[in-house]
Sequence to fold (524 residues):
Amino acid sequence: MTTKEILYKQNIILYKQDELKKMKRADLVEILAKYSSRPGRMKKDILIDEIIKHQEHLEDLKSKLVIDNAIEKYHRGTVEYRLPTLIINRIIRDLWHDDITFNTNTNQLHLNYRWLLSIALVSKELFKLISSLFTRFIVISDFHTILPATVKQQLKNSVINPLSVLKNISHLTMSMNIFMEITNNRTTTTHCTPVELGLIFRSVRKLRLVSYMDVTLSMHYCIFITEYMPNLESLALDQIKIDNSKVFPMLQQSLPRLTSLNISYVRFDKLSTIDISSNTIRKLKLPLLYYKDWRITGQSIQLETLSLMSMGALQIPMISDQLNEISATINMSTKSTSIKRIIFHHVTNISNYNSTKKIDKATGYAHIKSKHRPLTSICNYLGISMGPTVSYAKKIYEVSNNFDHNKAVESSYPNLNMIYQIVRISNSIFILICYLFKERSRIAREQEQQQQQQQQQQQQQQQQQQQQQQIQQEQEQQQQQQQQQQQQQQQQQIQQEQQQQKTVSQKLGLLLFLFLKLILTLSL
Fold:
């Protein structure tokens, strides 16, 4: 959302001083409440002055950032460059994407940002381009370095300054004390109006809140997030305490675009039930599961990425009993077709997780990348590179019990580092993968046994049918033989009768001849 859209979306009616004088005090209090200002026991004249002051501030922001913004006034027609402007912008965008998006080492980002931000000084058009690309912003402070109120004022001045590239924050990492200072608005000197809060937070899609103190995420801060960050897609809470079970349901209901939730380092106090079941969450990172009632999965859940922090052997049976809505065991990954990626955390290199002999069963997952995540900025200040290495394993193929088949499939991916089940990894999420695929192999064996039994039954039925067909054929052959024998007997009888008739006729002829001869002899 652009600055112009945010400013003109407020729908605030501007009143003249004569119109305000004709209104009642209750109406003036209601108008002033829209500017998030507390009227208290102000008199009517003071209320009118405060309303006019807020209206003048809004008009001043519109004039400074939109109407009379000198940065926006540049020639947009055809300019005789050696390269067209669109091609120049495309080159800068590609370089920005390569140096920022594909950079897995966060410590290198400030060096890459330096030369990219220097391009903004070339022309107003390139300044506007860099402003649209400069979307990641990290502001972390503690009370030892700089006060949160000072950081709040600097952030406010930077956003409303036309000469600042910080206009479209989509990825925001902020320490919790600064976030509390901005949302509470206790001080009048650094007070942020709703318009200014909208300019800061309205475009945020990924939010990460970090705390170095014992800070609780109350419902007040959740309401602020849902009100000023309606387009939030990813939420990460680092070292923050939660003591209200309604936090996650409220966030998931009020933020329909929220698809990623990272609570790996969240501390839960005084909670016996934690409900994170949502049909919009696709990427879920969970902490150590110390609780007996976790509602994570359901029939409508379509997780694609699952991360569990430092799973141990004691937690696996507990999860097996809790995640029983997909099947009787932890079949979130074994039977769910939606989970395609698993994230596991470790300190050593990924090569320690792969068996050189490859004697264990295949998992079907391959290690695709690793990222080093520094713990705090203090470690960077001290020159110490501390923090876990986050590894990403992606599902490549479905594993079968046939070793040769798995080997043939893996041979078609020669450049991938396939992962095998290693039981000796006791402090990693990879134990969970081993457990999952043991369950998968057990289910596969049962299915194969059922298929074999069905095949045997089918074969027996086929054999019985063949035997019946053979018996029928034999009976038909016997009937045919009997018919042939009967026909032969009939033919023999006919032949015998014919022969008898011939012999009789011959004898009659002979007798007739003798009789005639006798008559002739007597006549002579």
Notes: The first helix runs from residue 3 to 8. The first strand starts at residue 136 and ends at 139. Residues 3-68 form a domain with the Transcription Termination Factor Rho, Rna-binding Domain; Chain A, Domain 1 fold (CATH 1.10.720).
